[in-house]
Amino acid sequence: MPTAPLSIDYEAFAHDLDALYQRLKADISPADFKHLKKLERWGRLSSLLGYATAWIVPNPISAYLISQGNLTRWAILTHHVLHRGFDRVPGIPKRYTSKGFAKGARRWIDFPDWLVPAGWAFEHNVLHHYHTGETLDPDVLEDRVHLMRSLKFPLWMKYAVGFFFMCTWKFSYYAPNTLWMLQQRRSRPGKAALRESIAGETPAVFHGAKLWWPFHRAGLAFWSQCILPYGLLRFVVLPLLFWPLGQWAMLSVLINSILAEVITNIHSFLIIVPNHSGDDLYRFEDTISDRAEFYVRQTVGSVNYTGGTDLKDYLQGWLNYQIEHHLWPDLPILKYQQAQPEVQAICEKHGVPYVIEPLYKRVIKMMRLLTGQTRMRHLQTLKKEQRRAHKNNNQTELNLDAAVFASSPAPAPIAE
């Protein structure tokens, strides 16, 4: 059952956040793009060093460096550029804007990955961000793993299954499901039909699993747009580039590439999934009514990880500012780092829960939720109409009290 609404002033909370947002937007400058380019260079350097050493022998260091380059392209560049985070930067090249990034052939330059950019952008940017914690949110962990949570398996077995999906989730879950949701959007327009598809009794992982059968239209699209292009690029073309160094070099690059893929899956799972998972965070039954309610939900349904320096934030994929990012997904990433202390102060001022903890603590809470040991909290936020009616009732009571006070006889003077 949903808990009682938070006893806060929604409008005052939204007013303070809007004022901060306007200041952050006004401060967007080429410095934000310079900051992004620095992080992009870190990712490219990681990839370069990884492949420069991957041919020598299979080893975890080269694999990790390749993985870090992959993660940088997804979590930092693709994620925030497709959110229009850099569209307002003066003079920015089109390829770093939402209209130019990963479009057409540039997909294999900007975002070579299992995921189709348009599918991921719809699943993440639209459904997840603007329906956070709702039935229409495809990233509510509690719902996505409902089957495993409900089975009476030993706990160790649930952890083993969870670890398997952690190692493979980008191509076994995320890529097929994001493409499937994009296909649903195109074939079943309208939120009602989409909600029925996503929130049906069939677990989401089974929806995406349908695409693994290549002998029908939907499956053919998955194989031709996701599996074959990226698989050939990562595990065939790149190892073949080391042919002049011999068969051992090619085999080493292949093994390191496979290991890098596993590391990327684990790393991305550990920094993405805990963002909205834990028994101290909220989920919701219905949709929002206005921006003020949106702000409240994004705050109490998200969690930050500790950070504060470029290196710490980079290693966490810049996903440690999830609250700020969910409040304003269209800002450059540097603005989240700058805004975090002020957002936390605004939440404390208005009594809005603001959760920030080290990543390892959030991973523990996420795993407990994944294995069915805990549950998310449910919250019924106040709609705009409810708040208006409540305000009018309070004003009526205030006016009535004033009228009663005015009509009351004056108190008798105190006898001397």
Please give a structural write-up:
- 64% of the residues lie in helices and 2% in strands.
- It is mainly α and 416 residues long.
- The strands form 2 sheets. Strands 1-4 form a two-stranded parallel sheet. Strands 2-3 form a two-stranded parallel ribbon.
- It starts with 9 loop residues before the first helix and ends in a 9-residue tail after the last helix.
- The longest helix is centred in the middle third of the chain and has 33 residues, at 155-187.
- The model is unreliable at 396-416 (pLDDT under 50).
- The chain has helices at residues 10-26, 30-54, 60-82, 107-110, 117-130, 141-144, 146-150, 155-187, 191-198, 204-209, 217-240, 247-272, 291-300, 310-315, 322-327, 333-350, 359-370, 384-407, and strands spanning 282-283, 304-305, 356-357, 377-378.
- The chain has 18 helices and 4 strands.
